[in-house]
Design brief:
6-stranded antiparallel beta sheet; 22% strand; 191 residues; 45% helix
Length: 191
């Protein structure tokens, strides 16, 4: 999974080389649909972002709800839109690009810099959002593989523990111990 997360960071770095932002971040929609979780970030300098933000407020929330990119500049009088920031920094320009999968918005790419973003840069960021979707799908596949591997390891351990069973009492004792291990409980009983 860490290799996949590295892929997400590398995509942000690549986008930073192309778009020249002072900050690039990816916020992923949490299952409750109400909040976005900071998944990855890249700064060319110092800065701090909130780990969780509302999926319905600020510029990032607006891009999430509208399902289309949002380009803003001259943000000095619109600091209330920077709900992702926790350090008081007010950039000159902001670009928020929804990341979709199967037609549903599942996150938002956020870029900041001191010069306004141009329409062609929005198109580049939109293309990068598609690549983010591929990285996130790869992460899910890797996690499913790791979960399946853990399940099979539990089954293997259980099967191996029954390999030398001599009688019914010992089999019941091993079954109880295995159930406790799998269910992660302190005590078990056979009735």
């Amino acid at each position: 999974v860490s290799a996949v997360q590295d892929g997400l960071y590398r995509l942000l770095v690549l986008s930073a080389r192309v778009l020249r932002p002072s900050m690039a971040a990816y916020y992923n929609l949490l299952p409750d649909g109400e909040e976005l979780q900071l998944k990855e970030q890249y700064f060319s300098g110092d800065g701090h972002l909130h780990q969780k933000i509302s999926a319905r407020e600020g510029a990032v929330g607006h891009a999430m709800l509208a399902g289309r990119p949002l380009r803003l500049h001259k943000l000095a009088s619109a600091a209330h839109l920077l709900t992702h920031r926790c350090d008081g920094v007010i950039p000159q320009a902001l670009l928020c690009v929804p990341v979709r999968r199967s037609g549903q918005v599942e996150g938002v790419l956020v870029y900041e810099r001191n010069q306004p973003f141009q329409p062609h840069e929005e198109m580049i960021a939109d293309a990068l959002a598609v690549e983010i979707t591929h990285v996130m799908q790869a992460e899910e596949v890797v996690q499913a593989f790791l979960d399946e591997k853990e399940r099979k390891n539990q089954i293997f351990t259980l099967a191996r523990s029954f390999g030398g069973v001599l009688d019914a009492k010992e089999a019941i004792s091993l079954a109880l111990q295995a159930a406790q291990d799998v269910a992660n409980v302190e005590a078990g009983a056979f009735v």
